[in-house]
Structure formats: structure tokens, C-alpha cells
Design brief:
The chain contains 13 helices and 7 strands. By secondary structure, the protein is of the alpha/beta class.
Length: about 350
Amino acid sequence: MDKYIGFDIDSKKTIACVVQKGKKDRFTTLKTDINRMKDFLNGQRRDGEKLHLTFEISGEAGYRHDALINLVDSITVSNPTKMTWIYRTAKKNDRIDARKQAVLLSIGEVPKVYIPNREVRQWRVTIQHRRKMVSSITQVKNRIRMLLKANGFVKAAHRGSWWKVANRVWMRGLCEQAEINSEELWRMNLIDMLEKLWLLEGQLKRTTKYLDGYLDKQPGSRLLMSIPGVGPRTTEAVLAYTDDINRFQRGKQYCAYFGLTPRLDESGSSRRLGHISKQGPSVVRWLVVEAAWRAIRKSPGLRAFYERVMCGQKGRKKIAIVAVARKLLSIMCAMQMTGELFNEQLVCRECGMTGVRRTA
């Protein structure tokens, strides 16, 4: 006999619903604590009974999945945004949500979320952490430039980048030129922002060094970095969020996972493709699109594909570059499945080009 258990978890309490064929649904209120959940599941085990558990995705889902997986026969982390319309109701409370998950699990209609192992989850977290640091550094740099321009320093003291060593020394000197009084408080703000910039850049350097070393150990890194324009940051993000390439049956499913396939609105004879879905990890879409801009400058085949989609219309540049990004993901999927390096000749043939040598 199978027992289907749905957990509706919030910060303070968890509602558990047990659905079993031929028996009345049973509800239990637990304190949201992993040990209480373990005790509850142990109490549900009977001779010959199988336990099947489901709960919704959250920031703690990976930890709960690892802690509870050995106490049940199957565990499913669900995506609430993709819950089937089979179970729609105007009412909503914790008991209904818990029962909905248990019932949908019993009929095999729970939209499952893939949970990688702890090591891969930590890799993903570190990639996201680095992306946020890059964003923070850009914000601080923009604030520094805005502050300097607001106080008459429209250009840096030395030609070239604002952030080369000579100009950084000049900025530091601005804070030490005179005593800071009520009319020169901007100098205090400047030194605070410069110190924040140096701190963030040090953290970024440390995180990047770790990620580079970890990426070198991954078997797929050499494959993906053989694609023109694809560097270590794009490679690590794609590999981390792919994890197991065998869970994808074809390239279209792979691209859909990263949110680069168009939405489909189809009814009768009407069929309309809309904007890309933007589902899945945004960090991968961001990096792959950035790689696509570099790839069309280095790969003749991808450049031809870009120009074909653009159709000579400047207004279609964004559409074309997203199409190239999707093409890149399809290529990455095929390379991981076959273990072959990037083949420029094959890409050129697909784009109707012949006689093009592979670029370095």
C-alpha cells in the first residue's frame, strides 16, 4: 500500500497531508523543524507500506531533500508555478495546499524540480555570488564617477581607463589634499566608496581563483571552451546548471530549461510564437548571450546565422543575438552528449556556407 504525503512548509509550521487509497485523508500540524519532520515520517512507516513525499521548491529545499531522502521510498520537490490545472480551487489555505500536493503526487502530476547533489548546489551558489559581486563593483564604479563629475572632475587625471593604477592613485590623492570640512564632505564619501571597491575587487579575485581551479577539474570544460567566444565563466555556469546532460532528451528541451525558447500560444488553426520564456537560471542566459556577441565575431558560421536571422534589419539585432545564444546552447548540448570538440565546418554547413576554414 502506498502513502502519498504532501508537506506545506512555511517559516513556523508545516502542514502534512497523508493520502492513501481507500482511507480518509489525514492532516497533521508540525513545527517547521527537520527533526520533527523525520519523526513524523518514521511514524508513518508500516510493514509493506511505501512512503512518497513531496514539498515545494524553496531556498532550503536542497537541505530538506538530502535530510529526508533516506526516510521515504521516493521524494519529489515540486514547482508550484507549474502545478496542473487539474487541481484548481477558489479556496486556498495550508491544508488545501498540502492535500493538493499529495493528491497530484498520487496521480503522477507533480511538476518535478531536479535537485543536484550538495557539491553542485554549492558550485551554483558560488557562481551566483560572483555574479552579484560583479554587479556590485559596477554600481560602486558608477557612483564614484558620478560623484567626481558632480564636483567638477569630468575627466580622469590620466588618459585611459578611470580604473587603471595611475587614476586610482589620483582619486586617493583627492581625499588627502585638504582637510575635510562641511563643504568638502564628498571627499569622505569618495574614500569610503574607494575602500568598498578595493574590498569587493579582492573578494572577486579570491572567488574567481577558486572557480577557475574547480572548473579545471570538470570533464566538460575543455569541450565547451573550444567554442569561439565561450570563456570559463560561461562554461562553468552551463556545466553547473546542466549537471547531468542525460536528463535532457534533445536540444530543444535543453534550451527550454534555460528559458531561451519562445512561448507558444496555439488554439485551433492559430499558432503564435511569443517572447522567450525566461524560465530557469537567469545567470546562464545572461552569460550565454554575452558569449553570443563574442562568438559572432570569431565564428564565420555563427556570424552567418546571426545575419540570416537579422535579415538586414537593425531593429532585429536583439532577436538575432538571442537566436545565436539558443544556437550556442544547442551546440553545447550536442557536444556534451557526443564528447566532440567544436566543429566550425559543421556549423558552416548548417548555415549554408562552404569552404570556410576553422578560425583560431
